[in-house]
Design goal:
Layout (H helix, E strand, L loop, with lengths): L9 H7 L6 H8 L8 E4 L6 H14 L4 E5 L2 H15 L6 E4 L15 E5 H9 L10 E4 L11 H14 L3 E6 L5 H7 L3 E4 L6 E8 L2 E4 L3 E4 L6 H11 L4 E4 L3 H15 L5 H15 L7 H10 L3 E4 L5 H12 L5 E4 L13 E4 L3 E4 L2 E4 L2 H8 L10 E7 L3 H12 L13 H13 L6 H9 L2 H6 L3 H16 L3 E3 L6 H9 L6 E3 L1 H9 L3 H9 L6 H9 L12 H14 L11 H18 L4 H8 L3 H24 L3 H16 L6 H4 L6 H9 L5 H6 L2 H8 L1 H11 L3 H4 L2
Parallel strand pairs: 1-6, 1-7, 2-4, 2-5, 3-4, 5-6, 8-17, 11-13, 11-14, 12-13, 14-17
Antiparallel strand pairs: 8-9, 9-10, 15-16, 18-19
Helix pairs in contact: 5-6, 8-9, 9-11, 10-11, 10-12, 15-18, 15-20, 20-26, 22-24, 23-24, 26-27, 31-32
Length: 721
Amino acid sequence: MLSSELALPKEFVDCLGIEKLNPPQEAAIKSGLLEKKSMVIATPTASGKTAIAEIAMLRHFSDGGRTVYLVPLKALASEKYKDFKEKYSKLGMRIAISVGDLDSSDEWLGGYDLIIVSNEKMDSILRHGATWTRDITLVVADEIHLLDDISRGPTLEIVLTRLRDITNSQILALSATISNAEEIAEWLDAKLVRSDYRPIKLYHGVFYPYMLEIDGKEKREIAGSDDLEVILSKDVLKMGKQALVFVSTRRSAEATAEKIADKIEKLLDKTEKEELKKIAKGVEASLSIATKQCKREASIVSKGAAFHHAGLVAKQRELIEEGFRKGVIKVLAATPTLAFGINLPAYRVLIRDAKRYGSYGSEFIPVFEVQQMCGRAGRPKYDKEGEAILIAKTANEAGELKERYIDGEPEPIYSKLSMESTLRMHVLALIAAGVTKTRNELEKFFSRTFFAHQYRNLEEVMEKIEKILKDLESYNFIKIGKGSFIADEFVAAFDLGRDVELEATKIGKRVAELYVDPASANHIIKNMKTKTDIEHLLVINQCIEMRPLSGVKRKDYERVEDELARSNINAPDVWDTEYDEFLKAFKAALMFRDWMDEIGEDRLLDIYGIAPGELYTKLKNAEWMFYSSSELAKLLNNKDMANDMNRLKLRIKHGVKEELLSLVRIRGIGRVRARMLWKNRIRSIGDIRKTNDRLLAELLGPKVAENIKTEADKPLRKIAR
């Protein structure tokens, strides 16, 4: 089917950039895509699912409709926004992205035709009661298979359930091939478009010392004395291609990239080496002071490889991803999260680690996860085929991996909505938003979820919900019935089949809007009394949102326990089962304290084993928890506590001692420049205004000095950040 045959204006089809529809795209059209039928599209990676969504978006835009495009990751949202903006803004389509600030309804989004949001942001928008959501006509849910993800799935499930309740929108759910796609289609009252079509042929294989076996393609020996992943990487470079190597941990990603880089450097030409030097320089300069990790990555990049994991800061990831897309970086060693994220295909994908440590020791990773990694093989527009190769230590292990991952079926997708911590957040949010005003309405809402559809009963969930309702009432976040029920009366009411009214209190509504776990909010409120900074830090690090650092290692015990003794904080007894968790939270509190005392990223990496990328994620979380604490304190008329929380929020944000807060408010002044100015007795905005230009230029450089001087001359409300 030619795209010119689509019932869309010619200029729309031209922007789409497709001359002929592929089989899944044609199947979607024939199934009623342009008639606004809801669909689940279950096809392999790189099979054109996004183009199906784009055709639907254009159809709704031509009718004056509004599309919401849901994605699981911020990076994916940015990628989609960039692509769609470039293609469709010329049609007059107003395109917006919103992934931050979980305490806003973002009413401004009502002026846009296509809105790209993370699942969590959409949940937050619904909690704040944004009026524009009722005008949504198309919902695209990208990576719908993440319903199975314990951390992301429940939010996506609730968001889709709520959007189906408040709109009559077309739902378009995009997924890789999954075994129970029919079940998801039934839940969404959608048609299923399933296809094995892939424009780039994907070959699966295994490699063991020293035999490469690729099904339907070849069997050959590749001799070498290097590690197996190094041998295969060198082999693919000799073909003029690139490789992605998936390993289980960040440490492995770094070590693997380093080994490969040392061996492939001699295969690069002069032009490539010059380009790599530029990228490496940018990677090393991504932080104000380069850490050991920055220098290690830069060294590896200069030799043609790179590692990719959550420990990198955003600027480094951007440089590395762009270098890989351009074909300058030849091999990327990554943790599995990359398989679910942005689009970085390679000719050859190597899966070195088919096992990782879980609750029961070393375990095989799911088939579905391996298939996601394999799906990165084959670069559209560059390759006619791709190779996905599992690496084994022996021929027997190779046979086992082949049977499990190449010949095996992916696991079904299961709802994870019954997790109590997740339910707690969403139950309060539904009551606070007035979506469910009684216990029976709450049950009816959950009867429309994927969980209820999949398990055909709500008994397990409702038992947990009834316990959660009692907890929420004990926190004073909701009122049950006309008055307040004690536990026995509460249970008796349900046993007698009586419905019970549910209403959020003022503080309960605010907790729901702040997007924090009600148990965390209760913990913060209970501990809302005058404390030292380390105590405040401990309180937020005991909240589920902060996910404390890894356990305290034997070599750290003495230092952490000495700090605990000096703090005069009451701790559980050492034999108490809660002691280890307490110590982890206290260790995290120490890390944040060191950051606020201007300890550098490199030193924090040495002491706490936390890489810059991971550090900045935790800093953002801590900043949000202090903001939330301040908001709760204001609601409870505790002005002193609200001020304390704001002070700590700013110190966390900028990583400075209190004395520098007035300087870091100025755009262009970070912790390093602020400390330099302070040492030279320039300690306020007024001091900057009075300081002569020559001295500022000597301290900061001419360009920076000029910019800061300009900023300092602005009204205070425009300076603050």
